[in-house]
UniProtKB/TrEMBL annotation:
The chain crosses the membrane at residues 93-111, 117-134, 141-159, 212-233, 240-259, 271-292. Its cofactor is Mg(2+). This is UbiA prenyltransferase family protein. Its main location: membrane.
Length: 293
């Protein structure tokens, strides 16, 4: 079950809506924050498991033909890589797991703000469409960015009913660019050999590794810029600690992965792993800023 829901990735992903929550409310209620954390975890576990369920057929062929060469630790594969495709879980058990988690996420979302329910449903729908486009178009990476931005934005609405266009817009752009440049394209770079055999269309498969690297690097630069501008906008709440901390985390988890990819496209997994920790690092910086305020 941990592998089906990509447990490590799901736990780390909680940082995304929590950052949005702190941006929306610099002094969140601990009880509400705990409820949002549980709901967010349930939602991420359900969506990641849905991805494995939708891709079970393709992943089954992946395991039947060839496994990706071991190029180092992969956060996405912690627990077991595609356990449903490997026959480690039954489809019925996977469906029950996803349904239970989804109900929990929806109930908590409804308690916090009905908008959170709509955002969760939209993110789940985008995940399904993304999986369906696996062999259709390499531009599905755009859907991946939108899906992550939508899911992360639920944290804002869990603590605030109104929309503040500038900070929320910068946050959406930040999450959109980070997902594409830090996770989606690097993950595709690591899977090129398998994807070619399976007919999966990704940017590196269709256009080559070097254009994919520059595209990922461009999105990582956008994410770095958006996060910095956002912290300037949020200066009254997070101050110098929030700004400097966010920029420092960005150098390590956005700019460094970009540099790794430019130097060597084969370093896709190390770049992916580094970028995955970006929201967690920013969350830590913002919490520190609030505690020192």
């Amino acid at each position: 079950m941990y592998g089906l829901s990509r447990g490590t990735q799901a736990v780390l992903s909680i940082a995304q809506p929590l950052v949005a929550a702190l941006l929306a409310d610099g002094s969140p209620s601990p009880g509400r924050l705990a409820l949002a954390t549980v709901g967010g975890l349930a939602g991420f576990l359900a969506v990641f498991a849905t991805n494995d369920l939708m891709d079970a057929g393709v992943d089954g062929r992946r395991f039947a033909t060839h496994l990706r060469a071991d190029t180092g630790p992969d956060i996405d594969s912690a627990g077991a890589r595609h356990p449903l495709a490997q026959g480690l879980l039954t489809r019925r058990l996977a469906l029950g797991w996803i349904a239970g988690l989804s109900v929990l996420a929806l109930v908590i979302g409804a308690l916090l703000n009905p908008v959170c329910v709509l955002l969760f449903l939209l993110a789940a729908l985008l995940e399904v469409v993304y999986c369906r486009l696996a062999t259709v178009t390499p531009y599905k990476f755009l859907l991946s960015g939108v899906m992550v931005a939508v899911g992360a934005s639920a944290g804002w609405f869990a603590f605030r009913t109104s929309v503040d266009p500038l900070p929320l817009g910068l946050f959406v752009l930040w999450m959109f660019a980070w997902e594409i440049g830090g996770r989606n394209i690097p993950n595709d770079l690591a899977d090129v050999a398998e994807d070619v055999r399976l007919g999966i269309r990704t940017v590196p498969v269709v256009y080559g590794a070097r254009p994919a690297v520059w595209l990922a690097g461009g999105f990582l630069l956008v994410a770095f810029a958006a996060s910095g501008v956002l912290m300037v906008v949020a200066w009254p709440v997070f101050g110098v600690v929030g700004l400097v901390g966010t920029l420092a985390v960005g150098v390590l988890t956005l700019l460094r992965p970009a540099l790794l990819l430019v130097r060597d496209p084969g370093a896709a997994l190390p770049a992916f792993n580094l970028a995955t920790f970006h929201p967690v690092g920013v969350l830590a910086a913002l919490v520190a800023a609030l505690l020192l305020r």
